[in-house]
Design a protein that fits this description.
Layout lengths: L1 H11 L4 E7 L22 H20 L2 E7 L1 E3 L11 H10 L4 E3 L6 E2 L1 E3 H11 L5 E6 L5 E2 H12 L5 E3 L15 H7 L7 H13 L5
Helix pairs in contact: 1-2, 3-5, 3-7, 5-7
Length: 214
């Protein structure tokens, strides 16, 4: 409803462009990896369902009222300044746990395959599509999969120490594999991720080392 209120305000004030933060959660458990934009969408969580609903609303406002929109389906975003509270995302949570010498909370024994994309690359994608005409939707990811246990190892390496791992078992609504096919956005606007995972993790670790956090 918040999105519809915003779009109604845009329509009444003749604002003609919007960029929406969507999510790879719209896909659910993909039939194929990497996942393309036109793959079947069966969200496993209310969050992914809400993102898919917003995309449908954006499509209707483009076709009915000419409001141009681009939905960017982020895969796993990470980077400095991730101060969301409570901390739910793996990267900031794990970094803080290691720096505080606390046990790591891990689901599925770290066997999920994920696609991590650095926040600065996401920001560049926003800027690149701001004036794109029509109704558009793009994956924004690295195009490379990493198992969560390997991601954790990269964090241990960047920090220079390890802490014990607490296995939390299975988590409902959590797909096992989710990796982006980024061909569409590369062809449309020439966007490609510029940060490797190692570079991004180092920058993120450096930020949390030098910041105060709970």
């Amino acid at each position: 409803m918040g999105t519809i209120n915003l779009l109604e305000g845009m329509r009444k004030n003749k604002v003609k462009h919007i960029v929406s933060s969507s999510s790879a959660a719209v896909y659910g458990e993909p039939e194929m990896i990497p996942v393309k934009e036109d793959s079947v969408k069966q969200p496993l969580q209310p969050y992914g369902g809400s993102k898919l609903a917003v995309e449908a609303v954006l499509s209707s406002y483009y076709h009915s009222f000419g409001i141009n929109s681009t939905s960017l389906r982020f895969f796993n975003a990470y980077g400095p300044f991730d101060e969301m509270k409570p901390v739910t995302r793996a990267v900031p949570n794990w970094i803080k746990q290691v720096l505080n010498n606390q046990p790591i909370s891990l689901y599925w024994k770290g066997k999920q395959l994920r696609d991590y994309v650095f926040v600065e690359d996401i920001a560049r994608a926003h800027l690149a599509v701001m004036n794109l005409p029509g109704y558009n939707y793009f994956n924004v990811g690295s195009g490379k999969g990493i198992f969560m246990i390997d991601l954790l190892e990269s964090i241990f390496k960047a920090i220079g120490k390890q802490t014990p791992i607490t296995d939390l078992g299975e988590r409902p609504g959590d797909p096992m594999s989710l990796v982006a096919d980024t061909t569409k956005i590369e062809k449309a606007i020439g966007w490609k991720p510029s940060f490797s995972l190692d570079e991004g993790i180092k920058l993120t670790v450096d930020y949390f080392k030098n910041s105060r956090f709970e």
